[in-house]
Amino acid sequence: MAAQEETTQRAVFVDTSNEPRTDEEAVSMCTQGLERATAPRDIADLQFRLANAQVRRGFPELAVAAFRACVAADPRRLDAFNNLGLLLLRRYDYGAAATEFRHGLAVSESAELLLNLGVAVEHAGDVEEAQRCYERVITIAPKDARPHANLGALAAKRGALDEAIACHRKAVELNPDDPWLSFNLGDALEDAGDDESAIRAYEASIQLPCAKNNLAGLLEKSGDYDRAEALYAECCAQSPDDYDFAVNRACCARSRGVDAEALFADAAKLCERPYACAFNLAELAAARGDIQTALARAKEAVAYADEEEIDDARELLRALLEAWRDSLDDANVIEDALAHGLEI
């Protein structure tokens, strides 16, 4: 959670001479303290500590209940409103999250609450209010890079790439050590077609797997296949469960003329509907004359394809059936064609 627990000189009803070593101990100590606490602020402190411990333990429902008990005991606890809102935000309950951030802002304006409110309403679809929130954060916290980055993302969504780039440049200027800000700048520059500047921005955020992936794509585009392949390999090592990284690595290997079938087969295991893998495996099998494997993979591609992919998948299958019609039983060819809505 963003907010930190506040220290206090007031007596609380737990033994603070021996701080809890685990979250389970924290829950136990706070629960015992709440059995004896009577002062509202003491109750709020204990509930806040209890809520954060429950978050760390992975019990969000218990954390929500404790945060609500905290603000019920002390309605001026901005940190509790903020943490409760963040917890709801992470559960994709954007309306409820926005409500908690608004409750906190009703007590006192804070850049953190405003920024988080902007994120909540943006995800809920109210981009105009989100923009107002981010602009207000800039007014009250001019050295905070985050609202500039968020405004850049909003500008990119509406196609204002020059504005997006300017916002992201400002964010990087304010916090050059945050790799995500450089990555966002690179993404905007790449969308604008400025590959050279995008490469520099991705190099500045190279510790991020997504930056390696995007940089590899630009290097592959420029013909630097060796470094591109090395970066894709690093992406997959850092994020072994990422399907897109694995597919990009396999595609790069194929474009280099390297045997990529094993890479596509491994990538296919990372996705329930691995269309790209099936399509490429079908083409590779066809190239080596393996009729049955090519047809099987092409049928998988048709099964996995979405609305934008289905025409290409069907055309691949149709072309394979047509090309090998003389080698296959006509009845089977016709049956396959009809089953997949094809004309042979």
Structure, explained:
This protein is mainly α. The protein has 19 helices and no strands. Among the domains are: 1-134, Tetratricopeptide repeat domain (Serine Threonine Protein Phosphatase 5, Tetratricopeptide repeat), CATH 1.25.40; 274-344. It has helices at 23-36, 40-57, 60-73, 78-90, 94-107, 111-123, 127-140, 146-157, 161-174, 179-191, 195-204, 209-222, 225-238, 243-255, 261-268, 275-287, 291-304, 310-323, 330-339. The longest helix is centred in the N-terminal third of the chain and has 18 residues, at 40-57. The chain is elongated, with a radius of gyration of 27 Å. 42% of the residues are buried.
* Helix and strand pattern: HHHHHHHHHHHHHHHHHHH
CATH class of one domain: Mainly Alpha
Query: What is the terminal separation in angstroms?
Result: 60 Å
- Number of beta strands: 0
- CATH homologous superfamily annotation of one domain: Tetratricopeptide repeat domain
Keywords: Repeat, TPR repeat
InterPro entries: TMTC_O-mannosyl-trnsfr (IPR052943), TPR-like_helical_dom_sf (IPR011990), TPR_2 (IPR013105), TPR_rpt (IPR019734)
Protein name: UDP-N-acetylglucosamine--peptide N-acetylglucosaminyltransferase SPINDLY
Q: TL;DR?
A:
By secondary structure, the chain is mainly alpha-helical. It contains 19 helices and no strands. The N and C termini lie far apart (60 Å).
Protein traits:
19 helices, Serine Threonine Protein Phosphatase 5, Tetratricopeptide repeat, 344 residues, mainly alpha, disordered N terminus
Question: What does the secondary structure layout of this molecule look like, with pairings?
Answer:
Layout: H1 23-36, H2 40-57, H3 60-73, H4 78-90, H5 94-107, H6 111-123, H7 127-140, H8 146-157, H9 161-174, H10 179-191, H11 195-204, H12 209-222, H13 225-238, H14 243-255, H15 261-268, H16 275-287, H17 291-304, H18 310-323, H19 330-339
Helix pairs in contact: 1-2, 2-3, 3-4, 4-5, 4-6, 5-6, 6-7, 7-8, 8-9, 9-10, 10-11, 11-12, 12-13, 13-14, 14-15, 15-16, 16-17, 17-18
InterPro entries: TMTC_O-mannosyl-trnsfr (IPR052943), TPR-like_helical_dom_sf (IPR011990), TPR_2 (IPR013105), TPR_rpt (IPR019734)
Pfam families: TPR_10, TPR_11, TPR_16, TPR_2
Keywords: Repeat, TPR repeat
